[in-house]
Design goal:
The complex is a heterodimer of chains A (401) and B (304). The longest helix of chain A is centred in the middle third of the chain and has 19 residues, at 164-182. The radius of gyration of chain A is 26 Å and the shape is elongated. Chain A has 15 helices and 15 strands. By secondary structure, chain A is α+β, with helices and mostly antiparallel strands. In chain A, strands 5, 6, 7, 8, 9 and 10 form a 6-stranded antiparallel beta sheet that branches. In chain A, 39% of the residues lie in helices and 23% in strands. Chain A folds into 3 domains: 1-20 and 95-229, ATP-grasp fold, B domain (D-amino Acid Aminotransferase, Chain A, domain 1, 2-Layer Sandwich); 21-93, ATP-grasp fold, A domain (Dna Ligase, domain 1), CATH 3.30.1490; 240-400, Succinyl-CoA synthetase domains (Rossmann fold). Chain A has helices spanning 5-14, 28-38, 53-56, 65-76, 125-131, 149-157, 164-182, 219-225, 240-250, 274-286, 303-314, 334-347, 352-355, 366-375, 387-400; strands spanning 22-25, 42-46, 59-62, 88-92, 96-107, 112-118, 136-140, 185-196, 201-203, 206-210, 256-262, 267-272, 293-298, 321-326, 356-360. With 304 residues, chain B is of the alpha/beta class. In chain B, helix 1 (19-31) packs across helix 5 (142-148) and helix 8 packs parallel to helix 9 (268-277). In chain B, the strands form 2 sheets. A 7-stranded mixed beta sheet of chain B has the order 3-4-2-1-5-6-7. A 7-stranded mixed beta sheet of chain B has the order 9-8-11-10-12-13-14, sandwiched between helices. Classes of the chains: A alpha+beta (401), B alpha/beta (304).
Chain lengths: 401, 304
Amino acid sequence: MRLYEHEAKQVLARHRVALPQRTVATTADEAASAAAEIGGRVIIKSQVLTGGRMKAGGVRFAESADEAREAAEAILGLEINGQQPMGVLVEQASPVAQEYYAAVTWDASAKRPVVIFSDMGGIDIEEVAEQHPEHLSRTHISNLRPFSDFEAKLAVSKVGVTGGGLGRLSRIVAALTRVFLEYDLTLAEINPIGRLEDGSFLALDSHMDMEEEARGAHAALLRDLGVADEDTRQARPPTEFEIAGAQVDAADTRGVAGRVVEFDGDLGLIIGAGGGSLTLFDAVRSAGGRPANYCEIGGNPSVAKAAGLAKLVMSKPGVEKIAVMMNVVSNTRVDIMARGVIKGVIEAGYDPAEAITIFRIPGSWEEEGVKILDRYGVEWVDRSVSMHEAAQRAVAKMQEA
Amino acid sequence: MSVLIDADSTFIVQGITGREAVTMTRELLDYGSKVVGGVTPGRKGREVHGVPVEDTVRAFTEREQIDGAIVAVPPAFATDAILEAIEAGVKLIVVVTERIPRAEVARAVEYAAQEGARIIGPNCLGLIAPGKSKMGGIGGAADATRRAFQPGVIGVMSRSGGMTTEISNALSEAGLGVSTAISIGGDAIIGSTYAELMPLFEADEQTQGIAIYSEPGGPMEAQLAEHIAEHGSRLPVVAFMAGRFMDEMPGMRFGHAGTIVEGRADTTADKIARLEAAGIAVAERIEEIPVLLRERLDANGSGA
């Protein structure tokens, strides 16, 4: 879950990292008065949950309140990578002598957090890693021993920083590392850290991602930042269909009918489980089908949950047929899935024999499931038909129709 | 032989009195796994399907050899349960629990490495040496498990529990069968990756080839490609890559916790290129896996 820049900066401020004077504005007038209050040259930055703001024109400088108003007006109306900004950050602009980069993230190979530091900040860090490896350090942290300040010092000193800058930069990197560890972040980045003419350092931009699973543990922080529980912070906001899907899942604790994602095709999908859904979605597309949705069903859902999901998908405008497919299942009961999807399809006002293009869920209670499917005239296949063949069969039926 | 477990492996179930753990224990016993005990604090003296329950892991390890532990406790208690098993001297810990925070998993994995123990998972279905033993919910009921996992020559490693079964089933139907199948878990940080498990399969006489299931996100496929490029392998490896549609949808999470495209290295296109460069065949469909493996086994002159 990504935090906005202004939120990430609030987190840094709590840990006493020095930041430019700044205000969040949601209108051009607010931005103008913020600029007047700060005085002098300001920078206006789009608050979106995506990179590439500078390139897209989402960052501008202003010398006066009027210029700030004008810049904010333009930025507030500018969509970046499909995202509308939640506001702009108006910040005091300071002349910078040198820029640095600091980040803490997980190294999944080493299975440890890694502190990345560079004295070439402000530019693409992957480029620095490739072209100037001597300007970039990687320092792994123990998961067992508590973090200690010397590790931040090591990270900074490895690229050759010494003198007064070493202590000041190390304090920022240590604070960033503690923020990463304390709030279960998967990325804590300051890029750039600016060294001003007077030798002081400021965090000029920051990017933080929190682990989805850790939201509950950091409810207090998220409340302070004003992040609402329903704010998913996905790459795009959820659609009504997706919100309804989440409600189907939440209505009953048994089993999972999760990650309902809307697509604009005509074939509804009741698919599972995790890896099976990824496989089947690809299979439908490679067969030439156009999925109306993605979902992950599994963990032995109740009849009500399977029915709720089937009904929701069948109720989507433009959807008249669904495919019900899973990998060979271990703990999901085939008969319950059969009963559930048939119920949902009927409740949505369709004939299961017509609407269900294919049913492919091999596993326990399969014989009982097959009896139910036969009674309603639904075409089913067993494990001798592969996931890809089943998907092809469903797509062929769409094309026949 | 098989990998990590065999017919004589003894193990305990931590959190054995939980609803799903009770069912899993029944299935394990039916399959012939040697479940010799269970741990639930405060439930000492009870039995689950005839398996004695104790308050602590040490209660078992102090009186008998325990080869492995299955951790099936809620996420809030899972790390503590893993640490308890490692501290008590258990060397193989299969963690089925989902939604354990990454830092906690990393802490447990580092402690395991320090103590010479191995973690499989978390967020996995466990592992199975067909016809011998299984640890975890893999395969479900004993008869369903016997059907999908027949003894044979292919080692299976998968980030998806369900797809471990699907692929093993395809290998069984094709007559190749499975030496050991390991559901390695779907999280971003896991106890044992493909590359870390490869040497075990290399050393196993029964195993003649490897099938892996992979997804977008994380460096695990790159790590495997690098491992094979560097060390070579006597085993032909065939991979299946799911979630190709995710390459077009950066920032969206699908499937497992570790399945997200954030950078170029997370995409299936990049992973496929790396795997192929290391000589690993990438199947387009599940049913191609046994075909590609058989071609390579024949070329190797293996008797399978």
